[in-house]
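=== RUN LOG ===
request id: a7f3
mode: sequence -> structure
chains: 1
length: 670
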Amino acid sequence: LNIWVRPGDEGKCAFGMEALKKSMTWDEEVYGREYDLDIYMIVAVGDFNMGAMENKGLNVFNSKFVLALPETATDDDFEAIEAVIGHEYFHNWTGNRVTCRDWFQLTLKEGLTVFRDQRFSEDMTSEAVVRIANVKQLRARQFPEDEGPMAHPIRPESYISMDNFYTATVYEKGSEIIRMYDALLGRDGFRKGMDLYFDRHDGQAVTCDDFRFAMADATGKDLRQFERWYLQAGTPRLRASGAFDASAGEYRLTLSQDYPDTAFEIAGAGDRVALHMPIRIGLLAADGSSLPVVLAGESGGTETERVLELTEAEQTFVFAGLSEEPVPSLLRGFSAPVKLEMERSKAAFGVQMAHDEDPFNRWDAGQQLALELLVDGAARADRGESVPLDPEFSEAWGRVLADDGLDGSLRAQALVLPAERVIAQEMDVIRPDAIHAAREAMLTALAKAHRDAIASTWEALAPAGPYVHEKAQIDRRRLRNVLLRLRVATGEEAAIEAAWAQYESADNMTDAQAAFVVLADQEHARRDDVIAGFYDRWKGDPLVLDKWFTIQATATRADALARVRELAAHPDFSLTNPNRVRSLVGAFCSGNQVRFHDGSGEGYVFLADNVLALDASNPQVASRMVSIFNDWRRYDDDRQAKIQAQLERIAQGGELSKDVYEIVSRALSR
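=== RESULT ===
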């Protein structure tokens, strides 16, 4: 096993090497797949458009996903390195030994291998935390893609530039489709299907249908309708409603599926039909205990979770033997990549937030309740009204804060409010200023309402010794750094000084970066101190310097765009390095919604300037950047006009690459 790096970086490879060994061991133990060559090499390079490329025997990696030391990489960076190294190694079987017949089958290797690397990460760290992180990514990146001008099935029907279809749909949604096989067939059935797939097709170039046939033949499961997931673009909507008959002890759950209207026309939308969906479900009593999930007509059972199969536009499932009206826990583990619509009371949300035995749904209940309140808050802010803190949500949020039974990483996830991009998806017309105002108001109100509990918990989580990379300490750091953000949200001087003290004393990048992030958003002298100090210490390390650019680009201060323009002229910024472009241009335009969408439209001019400057030398990165405009029809008329003007400016900017031409032409079409 070899890792090749630039001279001077040899000392940053130990974690990557261990991750490779873990990947090889895991694939042998879980899938029975051994490596087939005598040598496996990784080369880490600083100028690379992608994360990595699985060339047989010699894997080319972006150095971001290889090099790590505690003082230069965060806990999240370490986990990303482990996942990407695993992903590329797993391609040896799902991508190399069994490969794709043509480019249209790309999800066959990428969706399947993303699923495998996610399962690997779940086994190496925490199944619940990894699942939550992956669904957050899906909702923030792939769901908007499904509603935009580049919406496509996981198996696209056509393309101008194949580079444009290395997408969240092909990768992340493709992984969710593989996960649904696992839900429908069970772990043992899925393993049988994988074994048959490898036995049949080792050394061949095959199709998505070949994979589906192997799953069906190995288990006897009828998966003909399941093919529609490969053919239909868009995120399905799952609607649920329930009715309880106390006299009969029955709960009738009606599920229906369709697709919501979108701002862009989606090819083939009129031909979409019902999908085959696995809906993992549990039922909770008012006290949070689990109730049996026995369908009417079945003999009495004690199981408290099962998978329903929704195959029609609407179906009703009747659960029997219930002594009280249950709180349904639907889509446990996010068993299908859909948008769930179901009316729930705040009390029902509270039961799930406090007691749901499925960690994902426990987290998601809080997210969905917060989303409802934030959408309402954004409407209030848009009308110039104040945004009050809902007392029932605050109480439920406080119970999560005080729940020592949850590990720190899960608690940290549960305490973080939905991102502004996720809130935007719930609005017919996206109002970036109102969304930001509502989210900041809720964050500040929670921080003040729970000030003492936040401060005491933060103090109790102080490090007792030097940095250690192990689960308990990772959990502790994650929770403490979320609480630091909340402490600073109160605006108290003592909280800002606590963040500065954490930055100065940190012996690891996780804690230093967390403090830098909160200080970079302040109107305070410590902001200037941390920006100067971080640069002086790390200006010689390209990967850490990328963090310096990103943290400033995503700070939501009113002067954010002016600062980004200054950074674009900085001697250490270069359009020739993809990581540096993503760290500044990409981070600001896709990660700072409120400032990129400033009403002046200057953020749009900044993005268009950089797309035009990049296209001739790096069309792949240029097309990724211009894709940020893809949801432009979701905004108010004034912002739409300003974005359209920049898209037309790019379209008329000379001889465009195929990559950028395809994105821009489809964005400007209906």
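=== NOTES ===
The chain has a mean pLDDT of 96.
The two ends are 51 Å apart (CA to CA).
=== END ===
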